[in-house]
Specification:
It is a single chain. The chain contains 11 helices and 25 strands. The chain is an alpha+beta fold.
Amino acid sequence: MSEARVFLLPDLGEGLTEAELVSWHVSVGDTISVDQPIAEVETAKSTVEVPSPYAGIVAELHAQPGETLDVGKPLISVTPLFSGTAAPEPAADDAAAGAAPAEPAQPVVEPAETELAEPATASAEAEAYREEEKAGSGNVLIGYGTPGGHAAARRTRAPKSSVAVAEPVAAKPTEDDLTLLRTRVPGKLGAVISPLVRRMAREHGVNLGELPGSGEGGLIMRKDVEAAIHPVEPAVEPVETKPAEPAPATSGTDARTGLPIASRTPVRGVRKAVAANMTRSRSEIPEATVWVDVDATALLELREGLQAGGSNVPGLLAFIARFVTAGLKEFPELNTRIETAGDGSQEIVSFDGINLGIAAQTDRGLVVPSVRAAEKLSARELDAEIRRLTDVARQGKATPTELGSGTFTLNNYGVFGVDGSAAIINHPEVAILGVGRIIDKPWVVNGELAVRKVTELTLTFDHRVCDGGTAAGFLRFVADAIETPTTLLADI
């Protein structure tokens, strides 16, 4: 039996550099096949199942549930079931005469990364195993896939003049293993896990060619770039006597307050990603907020009339999403992004299309899946896609693409029973629109006091991309559409 092959935790997409192991689907000693799910991991964006690129017997599990692993670290070791049967030695006189093998010479197809000769004879079972091991299914899991049987990844060459005994496969990860995980930047640059790390280095003027990587095989991690951006200065002790440091906390007691500590919860997964994104938004974006009260009575009456007609009626959020996409067409400055170059210069990037993010509260934290090309969808189509995205997000099954491709966010915090909120912009977007609850309020209609269905719209925007006039114009556009909805809903 061959030595175990080590499968390293792959890049699960969007430049994610770590994942928390939620659970194992296999145990040591289990027999597994190519593409069989072996573990469930939680990234900063979703929970995904990781399939195995190898078939064989599970030799070792390299982590315990609850542990956080860096991309490129060992996840599981798998021992192949078969290593092949060696061909018989040729007769001495045949070898001296340079006799050719008994079988006619045929091209031998083998993986591109190895120069080992295939054995001349093997059992049908071993041959089937090797073909499965080499080919894989080609199935893709977000950011990586098992090796597929594509022509670009294989080559054909003639067999050697003499029959060689097949050597066992090396135990340590080969370059083929690493190509499942990352690409190597040409020249002097070390291994870089994703465009996210390269962009961070470019924006802050960090030379990756001079940066040592702390990851597997010199892999440059995000923390390496952050350390280069914010080097730790040596502490300078004052000459005068320092005040006494507070005593360390005793077991179960907080040193500062003296209160018993009820629990400690690590910040990780989605909560860690949300915290980092919100902190960056607050520190980098000069934001401003405008709001307006809106009479939504006509919109509610329109929806009730459609329901009475027995048709499939979209939810209120879908109607508002339709108004938002129309408003962004009129005020495209709010559907942009600011990028900073390595020399500190900035540019505003605009988009030919709208990916509308929908803020969704889940058991794992706040996530924002996005409706792609939302400007092309009717209210009914928006309603169906919003329901689908929020459902997969709450199950933790949304893909990184669904969670990281938004250009503008719509946040319906009214479902929590609140009227308004100065929301934090979902970096790197430049604006977010919040919708409060709809409640009965006194309202003046044609000079008469009446009770109307009123909601509050709140727009938080990046003051670098536009001024208050643009923000107010967009907000007023959406408000007017809610108050007179028939003008924009001919295509529902």
